[in-house]
Amino acid sequence: SCCGSCAGSEIDGRLEDKPMKWDGYAYWHRQTEARAFPWVFSYDPPSLNIYYGGNEYGSDMTTEHIGSRIVAVMESHGLNVHWDGNPDNSIQIFPDGLTKTDYERN
Q1: Which range is least confidently modeled, 36-40, 59-63, 73-77, 79-83?
Q2: H helices, E strands: number in the chain
Q3: pLDDT digits (tens, 9 = 90+) for 85-104
Q4: DSSP assignment of 44-76, as one string?
Q5: Fewer CB within 10 A of the terminal residue: the chain, N end or C end?
Q6: d(CA 90, CA 85)
């Protein structure tokens, strides 16, 4: 999707139209891809934001629980992840072993 609004609408429509047993979902959109490619776009720090939510149509999992599961899986695969635990905030993936704190120190 091009943006968060379009992605949210598409996901909501799919969950409502096809009530499968999905606990939740995760996505990024084209606007956030720009932050992931600092050699093309000038963003500091470079990161990829992951957005997520619970499936209100077929699961009792909360958005916070889905966020926690996503972070755990990403970290288990060695990705450098930052999330403050707030379900209203995106999950950030940082490259090269750097963290948001490393960039804030500079």
Answers
A1: 36-40
A2: 4, 4
A3: 999 999 998 876 555 555 45
A4: SS--EEEEEEE-TTT----HHHHHHHHHHHHHH
A5: C
A6: 9
